[in-house]
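Lecture notes, continued. The same structure-token format from the folding unit now serves as the input rather than the output. Read the line below as a description of shape only.
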């Protein structure tokens, strides 16, 4: 028994005075021994597992000196308090116990790390620009500092548990290899994942309350379902700025606050509907969302204000129905709507106020604006409205009649709300409806009618050609726009 004890003591003495060789190393230490040189740690160590206690000085030494390190296991150590004593980081000279010190492992070369099991907080920039590939937050951590894991160039997965109460800005910013995140905290802070261009899979907890400004800016998210986040009330300014691959975003029914430009520059966006609790479109909200073709889920009946540039660049929209509660449209709100063919303003009891150049880049004279007859004169005399082809509901949508020279009959026709209506002074025996590519979409023959109505399923805003054969053999045709 005495021989065994003697060998153990001798081994411990050797550990204390000899350099630790490269390879897998398990080492029991006391705080300060690594930084002071009492434990001579080889700079080419590749795998290191520590037991006992360390402080900010020790961790900084490991990160700075052990550049060949590939695996670091700190799960078995406690972090002791220490003062600067010449070691000052970002004007911080005192480091409390059980806190992963600010910037202490920044630039760490290790690909894998196990954090101390008993830490309460992770300081600012603790692992900034390190090479770790995955981070698991210990269960006792309730606070993570600013930029704690920012610019970790190899980080692919991250998990933030629900018991983390405070998370600083930029926590995962510019982690360009980050692909998968499970985030269960109540708030996603400012620019938390900004610049994570590979980020595709994001799972957010049901207790989420706020997504702050720029939180997911310039990420690679394609689809995000927030409908289960029943407590989510705020999405901050430019939260999804420049998410060029985002196609679908589902919002919870109870959300009431959307920030300026929250979907600015999401060029691939196709599928989104705003809950009825949203009554204003913030400035720059959907700027550049050129793939959206159906605007009805955004301009729902409860919208009263459309902010400046909020819908700018939606060149794929062919028709729009203005909400009956709409009171104001901001500067350049409908700028660049080059695909627009019809505007339904029938529900408006007054002309909405406008900012500057609301319809910039839109050929208004080619677009039919349908209004209630009671306010037609107001629209016809209002700046930025008078340039539309203004019509009352049910009024003929004939754009350009193509009559034979000897034609003596005329007819009236309209394509409104999915119904084709045709009427004439003389009897007609047949009609045909074609699209502009020459495809016959509708064909009817009669014994002789002066009025005819039939439901049709057509694309609003598109141009169609109607041909009418009168009973005496004469033919008339006209171009129609579907409304």
């Amino acid at each position: 028994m005495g021989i065994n004890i003697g060998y153990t003591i001798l081994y411990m003495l050797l550990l204390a005075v000899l350099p630790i060789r490269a390879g897998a190393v398990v080492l029991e230490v006391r705080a300060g021994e690594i930084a002071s040189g009492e434990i001579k740690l080889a700079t080419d160590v590749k795998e290191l597992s520590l037991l006992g206690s360390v402080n900010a000085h020790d961790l900084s030494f490991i990160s700075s000196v052990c550049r060949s390190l590939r695996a670091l296991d700190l799960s078995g150590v406690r972090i002791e308090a220490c003062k600067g004593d010449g070691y000052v980081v970002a004007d911080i000279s005192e480091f409390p116990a059980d806190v992963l010190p600010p910037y202490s492992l920044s630039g760490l070369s290790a690909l894998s790390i196990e954090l101390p099991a008993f830490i309460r907080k992770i300081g600012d920039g603790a692992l900034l620009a390190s090479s770790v590939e995955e981070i698991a937050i210990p269960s006792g951590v309730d606070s993570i500092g600013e930029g704690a894991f920012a610019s970790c160039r190899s980080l692919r997965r991250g998990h933030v548990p629900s018991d983390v109460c405070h998370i600083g800005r930029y926590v995962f910013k510019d982690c360009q290899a980050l692909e998968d995140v499970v985030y269960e905290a109540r708030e996603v802070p400012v620019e938390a994942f900004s610049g994570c261009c590979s980020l595709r899979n994001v799972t957010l907890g049901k207790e989420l309350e706020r997504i702050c400004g720029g939180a997911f800016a310039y990420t690679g998210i394609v689809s995000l379902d927030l409908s289960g986040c029943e407590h989510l009330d705020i999405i901050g300014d430019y939260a999804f700025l420049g998410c060029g691959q985002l196609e679908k975003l589902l919002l919870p029914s109870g959300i009431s606050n959307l920030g300026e430009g929250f979907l600015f520059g999401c060029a691939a966006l196709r599928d989104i509907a705003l809950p009825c609790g949203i009554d204003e479109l913030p400035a720059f909200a959907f700027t550049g969302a050129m793939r959206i073709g159906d605007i009805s889920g955004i301009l729902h009946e409860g919208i009263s204000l459309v902010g400046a540039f909020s819908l700018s660049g939606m060149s794929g929209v062919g028709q729009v129905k203005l909400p009956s509660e709409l009171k104001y449209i901001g500067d350049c709100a409908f700028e660049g709507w080059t695909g627009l063919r019809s505007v339904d303003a029938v529900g408006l009891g007054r002309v909405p106020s406008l900012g500057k150049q609301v319809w910039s880049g839109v050929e208004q004279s080619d677009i039919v604006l349908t209004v209630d007859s009671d306010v037609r004169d107001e629209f016809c005399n209002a700046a930025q409205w008078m340039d539309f082809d203004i019509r009352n509901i049910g009024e003929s949508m004939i754009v350009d009649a193509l009559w034979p020279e000897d034609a003596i009959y005329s007819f009236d026709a309209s394509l409104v709300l999915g119904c084709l209506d045709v009427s004439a002074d003389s009897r007609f025996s047949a009609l045909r409806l074609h699209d502009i590519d020459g495809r016959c979409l509708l064909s009817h023959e009669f014994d002789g009618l002066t009025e005819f109505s039939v439901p049709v399923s057509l694309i609003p805003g598109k141009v169609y050609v109607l041909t009418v054969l009168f009973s005496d053999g004469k033919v008339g045709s006209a171009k129609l726009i579907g409304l």
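Point for the exam: The longest strand covers residues 419-435.
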